[in-house]
Design a protein that fits this description.
With about 210 residues, the chain is an alpha/beta fold. The chain has seven helices and seven strands; from the N terminus they run αααβαβαββαβαββ.
Length: about 210
């Protein structure tokens, strides 16, 4: 197994517990900050789809808490969650037996999914863990998310302006990431919802 994938599995496996809230399993500081990131996605879903159904790919789904969150807001969607940590996937399936949850690395060198497989791709927290190739992984990963989405992709990242930073985490600026995607995608950056976070939205240029 590649070193960067093993690091992810080694980090998250000890956090998995049947009794812990989902945000703890994913190493988020609170449910409130987790849901603020979800809210950024929900705002764009409402703009793009209104009450129309859509297909959503949740990359690094953890225990798939995004699905019930969106259902509580009345969205109609077909959900697929993917992750690479076996223990997390087992817990996700236990908590959500009716959801489509798969063990899959969408950032593999050869994409395991065709381009445009989903209307929307969402990725929350996947790029937070520091790796030897963090910037390259984030740039390539963001591009892959855009390729898999026919309507829009969204990913969040930890911001370098954060007043508190942890050595195990990697922090970025939008200016570091956007050059990898601006040729193929229209981009929007949202960075006012949390001091230590920002989200990048990608829209295929052929839609404009």
């Amino acid at each position: 197994m590649p070193k960067h994938l093993q690091k992810v599995i080694d980090h998250y496996t000890p956090l998995v517990s049947e009794n812990a809230p989902g945000y703890r399993l994913l190493d988020w500081s609170s449910r409130e900050t987790q849901f603020l990131r979800f809210q950024m996605l929900a705002l764009e879903l409402r703009r793009q789809f209104g009450k129309k159904p859509f297909r959503l790919l949740d990359v690094g789904c953890g225990v798939a808490e995004l699905a019930p969150y969106l259902k509580s807001l009345g969205f109609q969607f077909e959900y697929t969650g993917v992750d690479i940590t076996p223990a997390m996937l087992r817990e996700a399936r236990r908590r959500n037996p009716d959801l489509d949850i798969r063990e899959l690395d969408v950032f593999a060198e050869q994409s395991p999914l065709p381009a445009g497989s989903f209307e929307v791709t969402f990725c929350s927290g996947v790029f937070n863990l520091r790796q030897d190739n963090s910037l390259d992984f984030a740039q390539r990963g963001l591009h892959r998310l855009g390729e898999l989405a026919s309507t829009f992709a969204m990913a969040n990242f930890l911001h370098k302006r954060a007043s508190i930073q942890y050595s195990a985490c990697c922090y970025f600026t939008p200016e570091e990431l956007l050059p990898a995607v601006v040729d193929q995608f229209e981009t929007i950056v949202r960075d006012s919802y949390l001091e230590n976070d920002f989200s990048v939205l990608l829209f295929p240029k052929e839609r404009t």
